Amino acid sequence: MGLEEYKGVFVFAQQVDNVLDGVAFELLGKGKELAKDLNTEVTAVLIGSGVKELADQLAEYGADRVIVVDDPQLKDYRTEPYAHALASVINEYKPEIMLVGATAIGRDLGPTVSARVKTGLTADCTMLEIGDFPLNAAAGQEQQHNQLLMTRPAFGGNTIATIACPYNRPQMATVRPGVMQKIAPIAGAKANVVEYNPGFTPNDRYVEILNIVKAVKNTANIMDAKILVSGGRGVGSKENFKLLEDLAEVLGGTVSCSRAVVENGWLPVDLQVGQTGKTVRPQIYFAIGISGAIQHVAGMEDSDLIVAINKDEDAPIFDVADYGLVGDLNKIVPALTTALKAELGK
Ligand code: FAD
Q1: Do 35 and 8 contact (CB within 8 A), yes or no?
Q2: Which end of the chain is flanked by fewer CB atoms within 10 Å, N or C?
Q3: Strand order in the sheet with 127-133
Q4: Tens digits of residue pLDDT in 265-301
Q5: In this structure, are 94 and 149 located in the same domain?
Q6: Is 253 a pocket residue for ligand 1 (Cβ < 6 Å)?
Q7: What is the dihedral of CA 178, 181, 186, 190, to 10 degrees?
Q8: Whose CA is nearest to atom 18 of ligand 1?
Q9: Does pTM top 0.80 for this prediction?
């Protein structure tokens, strides 16, 4: 079958316990842009048990069509039935592009499905656009138009690679939560809802779930915070993070950190910002005692306003900061907290 028979941008609409994951809306936002460039539609693929009523939410965030695979076998995520569901949807509806969130579920599902439908997948993309696949006449290649160009950091973040999948369909990519922007929801929008069930026959590859124990999280989700007070190795110790907690409290913000802090065991990995942590986009990001390594900056550079505090005036964090304070954080942070307390009447 020719590649030209594959049409449309598809997005895996991840849900857990019948609640849609934010990354589904983010992928729909990006999917809409790509679909516009290709003059086609965005389809959300909703897989689960009793999930049909979530279709309206997907429509509000940009889905033109929702393909629902609803079956009791799909109640909780398991690789085999979910991979069967998504691979069957791809084989039946033949999308040109298939986007999956790089969540724990997506990182398992995406590559399993891409292998099953015999196509490639680019993991952890930070940019997706439609463009031409460069001609390499020497290798006898023909110029390919309207390709999905998938960009991601490579070699530990030291370079940026743009990858295409010109000879197979669909073109598959995973994208980390927080990287793409969702659209403002269009209240009352409706999508064309299509129900499709490929049939599920449990076999010895179906994992049996005996019990689900949910981790109790007492850390805030830094991806939702409007103000982040982020600390790095320069904070010096776990105890000294109290200075940042005090500042965060006055501002109604949340504490986050660099990887060095996690590696030192000062804060949990849930609070790590960066390439291997979370991508954040708060209104204000304080980078305190953080040098500004490329892998850290990759996770926070889209913040609306960046304030950096560092004793080294040449620290690379100042290249991305809107405001920079050069000096000892042990003096600046408490002084800032006191001044803000007075200013805000706290
Ligand atoms: P440092 O680089 O040690 O910087 C500490 C800073 O504090 C310095 O600039 C110093 O001048 C300043 N300072 C010290 N004392 C004071 C003081 N008293 N007052 C004011 N300033 C002071 N890093 C991440 O953060 N997130 C990631 O997701 C991530 N992913 C990675 C993935 C890969 C594959 C690799 C190879 C690395 C990754 N890293 C990540 C690590 C990254 O390269 C850096 O090592 C890390 O970000 C450094 O953390 P830092 O800025 O806290 O520490």
Answers
A1: yes
A2: N
A3: 127-133, 144-154, 159-163
A4: 999 999 999 998 999 999 999 999 999 999 999 999 9
A5: yes
A6: no
A7: -80
A8: 328
A9: no
